[in-house]
TrEMBL record:
Transmembrane segments: none
Top-level taxon: Eukaryota
Molecular function via GO: DNA 5'-adenosine monophosphate hydrolase activity; double-stranded RNA binding; mismatched DNA binding; single-strand break-containing DNA binding; single-stranded DNA binding
Boundaries of every Macro domain copy: 330-506
Name recorded for this polypeptide: Macro domain-containing protein
Stretch list, region Disordered: 210-232, 498-553
Listed PANTHER family: APRATAXIN, APRATAXIN-RELATED
Gene source species: Arachis hypogaea
Source species taxonomy: Eukaryota, Viridiplantae, Streptophyta, Embryophyta, Tracheophyta
GO BP annotations, alphabetical order: single strand break repair
Ranges of compositional bias, category Basic and acidic residues: 507-520, 535-547
InterPro entries xref list: Histidine_triad_CS (IPR019808), HIT-like_sf (IPR036265), Macro_dom (IPR002589), Macro_dom-like (IPR043472), P-loop_NTPase (IPR027417), Znf-C2HE (IPR032566)
Gene Ontology CC annotations of this record: nucleus
Matching PROSITE patterns: HIT_1, MACRO
Length: 757
């Protein structure tokens, strides 16, 4: 780009300029500023809202004042925040008049795909917008993109729609000396109406937009602050002062507090995707615990846990409009300067937080009774009612009763209405101390004991939530990438109802996006299979093990439940099953990855995958292996040219332990991609024989669940030759006659037809 450098008319002292960056997270705004500042001889200041509060996120007001003082010092300024709409930019533009300087906009209008994948991949982002949540946030932000126009008050606008445009702009600004000017006008705009990827939004949003008007207490919610936008995620509330400096929780009753989007790098915006626990006040209503004391304990425990919870947040919920506990807690939280991004209060029905309040809470706490039974009124009755019989049976599997001061985490079955409509994946039952003489175990005003129990109750509750969060956070970067890839792939496809009802956690736990997309074609059938009746079979429950770890807190998406449902209710799936016995069911894989591909499904509840397998499951593994061998032999009788391998995926995509019995031709239209191939042809596939050995000698199976295995190059499983893509690999294996590698020929890992006599 040419510079308008006219030596004769140069002023003695250079004039500062103000450059407003405009772009979604991941568009490269910070990198742009850093690169220019590295090479420029002009004094620059970067004003970044994500770091302006002593290295933490601050307010727009802070940005304005910092920009103003830099301009006063004749320094040029970058405004490094998203600034995606006119309103967000207008006050910065006004600085131009005040300081008699030129205001420029540099628009990093890069493809959404690129911004998303960068945001997902990055680590250590200043505004903590990274990982799986970033995809949804970036797309949401792009919905409100409004490209700048000269009429807003700029003297120059540079549009960058590709990485090479960005490089050009960096070099233009980077070589701008203290006395140089740039020509006025619009540069580089190719496609002013670039399309926002609404399709991705549809996929990522999944659950129908909440209806603010439908709120039972009529109080409206955060969405009502922004009329015309009925999606909680879309609220666009200007905060005059930084959230962190303003913890006085001044919003009206009936609103969630502490969440606002102000056009900065979306760090606050991303909170809507954060794992969230909604909890009622424990023991204060029916158990008549002193409100002041209870509020102190809530605030103390919240303060302790918010420090440990990463980006997760806690929401204290109360149904009543003028709730005493809510106002006490608000005041005390404010005194303690609790981070209002991590702790909110909300007036509403805890069973309808999403559908009527627009608040996404993946976990809710229940103020339970000691018998862990429905009824009794209050929150307990409401939650059991809303969650359906599924919660009762899932609770039974976890614990029979609860003592005061304890909590129990219960994953919610996908068929529960609370899961489907509210996106709740776990309920944590918690029991507090009782001060009500009409109720069991009354403490007779012994507040020394009572406070200790209430502290324990909140600690157990928050610990339970933290363990769910940890499990979810354990997902790898590759998984995040899969989410994005899948989101992008699906953006233009229409989606069926059940997919629209998946939660964020569903997305996060889709190890194998490809099963998912195959599912989406058939999801009606699967949805049908979710009808769980209350007369569920009395399965063996390994609750102790599950309480101690395993995949207990893994939130399987609703689409990943089909096998589990078949194992639990084979009577409903008779037509699909090849064999039903006490311990296992056998079925043809719905998307066979070879000519013959059968699944042997354990019927033991609580053993969702290999990770859950322990020593006492050895007999189960043996049974599955024997049934697998029987089916391999049966299939060999029909076609003696086949060769079978029996094994487990280290990290399966479908819930319920299942053994693959798969012929080694891999001749199937469903064998479509690298992941499919590598899941059966790398160490990710654990031979049943080896799994049994390991479990009998060390009590557990070795898992090779590094996602790198799934993205390895494609190699023939016989001769190990490498191939660039699946069609080429398939055409090679169709004719490869090389013997199988020695490793596979050992120990009976391959099952052949008996040799001819
Ligand atoms: P994984 O969980 O990765 O061990 O593999 C799950 C297997 O289940 C895949 O081979 C899928 O093709 C198969 N599958 C997925 N959904 C169904 C279904 N509804 N019925 C039968 N097989 C299924």
């Amino acid at each position: 780009m040419d510079m308008d450098v006219d030596g004769a008319s140069r002023p003695k002292e250079g004039k500062a300029i103000l450059v407003i960056l405009v772009g979604a997270p991941g568009s490269g705004k910070s990198t742009f500023c850093e690169e220019v500042m590295r090479s420029s001889t002009r004094p620059w200041i970067r004003v970044c809202q994500d770091t302006i509060g002593n290295g933490k996120a601050g307010s727009k007001a802070q940005c304005l004042s910092s920009a103003a003082s830099a301009l006063k010092d004749h320094k040029s300024v970058f405004i490094d925040r998203c600034n995606l709409d006119r309103e967000q930019r207008s006050e910065f533009v006004k600085l131009g008049d005040v300081h008699k300087i030129d205001v420029h906009a540099v628009v990093l209008d890069l493809p959404a795909k690129l911004c998303i994948s960068r945001s997902v991949k990055r680590t250590g982002h200043e505004g903590n917008l990274q990982g799986g949540k970033a995809a949804a946030v970036v797309n949401r932000m792009l919905q409100k993109k409004e490209l700048p126009k000269l009429s807003e008050g700029y003297s120059r606008i540079t549009f960058c729609q590709s990485e090479s445009d960005v490089k050009g702009a960096i070099s233009t600004y980077g070589s701008l000396g203290p006395l140089d000017n740039l020509p006025h006008g619009c540069f580089g705009q190719k496609n002013p109406d670039s399309k926002v990827q609404v399709g991705i939004m549809k996929f990522l949003k999944k659950v129908p937009a909440p209806d603010a008007a439908a709120r039972p207490d009529g109080s409206g919610d955060t969405t009502s602050q922004n009329p015309g936008k009925n999606d909680y995620f879309h609220k666009d509330v200007e905060m005059a002062s930084p959230i962190l400096d303003n913890p006085n929780l001044e919003s009206k009753e009936g609103e969630s507090q502490g969440v606002a989007f102000d056009g900065s790098h979306a760090s606050r915006f991303s909170l809507d995707d954060a794992p969230t626990l909604a909890f009622p006040s424990i023991s204060t209503s029916d158990f008549q615990f002193n409100y002041e004391k209870a509020a102190d304990i809530i605030v103390e425990k919240v303060a302790e846990f918010t420090a440990k919870l990463g980006n997760a947040r806690l929401v204290l919920v109360d149904l009543t409009h003028k709730s005493k506990i809510l106002s006490l807690v608000k005041a005390k939280a404010s005194e303690k300067h609790i981070d209002t991004q991590k702790f909110l209060t909300h007036v509403g029905d805890i069973t309808k937080l999403h559908s009527t309040g627009g608040l996404n809470c993946n976990v809710i706490a229940n103020a339970a009774n000691w018998r862990l039974k429905p009824g009794g009124g209050g929150v307990n009755a409401a939650i059991f009612n809303a969650a359906g019989p599924e919660l009762e049976s899932a609770t039974k599997e976890r614990a029979k009763s609860l003592s005061p001061g304890n909590a129990v985490v219960v994953p919610l079955p996908a068929s529960s209405p609370l899961f489907v409509t509210e996106g709740v994946t776990h309920v944590i039952h918690v029991l507090g101390p009782n001060m009500n003489p009409q109720r069991p175990n009354c403490l007779n005003n012994d507040y020394e004991k009572g406070c200790k129990i209430l502290q324990d109750a909140y600690a157990s509750l928050f610990e339970g939530f933290a363990s769910i969060v940890r499990t979810q956070a354990g997902q790898s970067r590759e998984e995040n990438e899969n989410i994005v890839k899948k989101a992008l792939k699906l953006q233009d496809k229409s989606e069926c109802h059940s997919r629209n009802n998946l939660t964020n956690i569903d997305q996060k736990n889709k190890r194998d996006a490809d099963h998912g997309s195959e599912k989406s074609k058939k999801c009606k059938g699967i949805q049908d299979s979710f009808g769980v009746s209350s007369d569920s079979r009395d399965e063996r429950v390994d609750s102790e093990h599950r309480r101690n770890g395993g995949s207990m807190n893994k939130a399987w998406g609703s689409w990943a439940q089909a096998l589990h449902q078949m194992a639990m209710h084979p009577e409903k799936h008779k037509d699909d099953l090849l064999e039903i016995s006490e311990d296992v069911v056998v079925l043809n894989d719905l998307y066979p990855k070879a000519k013959k591909h059968v699944l042997i499904l354990s019927r033991t509840r609580g053993v969702d995958c290999l990770e859950d397998v322990q020593k006492e499951h050895f007999q189960l593994l043996k049974k599955m292996h024997d049934v697998g061998l029987k089916w391999a032999r049966k299939l060999l009788d029909e076609n003696a040219s086949l060769v079978f391998r029996l094994g487990y995926h280290s990290a399966p995509s479908m819930r319920q332990l299942h053994l693959h019995v798969i012929s080694q031709d891999f001749d199937s239209k469903h064998m479509k991609n690298k992941k499919h191939w590598n899941s059966f042809n790398t160490a990710f596939f654990r031979d049943s024989i080896d799994v049994m050995d390991e479990v009998s000698s060390h009590g557990k199976a070795t898992l090779k669940d590094d996602d790198k295995l799934l993205s390895m190059e494609l190699r023939c499983h016989r001769c190990r030759s490498a191939h660039p893509n699946i069609p080429r690999l398939k055409s090679h294996i169709g004719s490869c006659k090389a013997p199988f590698p020695a490793y596979l020929l050992e120990n009976g890992r391959l099952v052949h037809a008996p040799a001819e006599p």
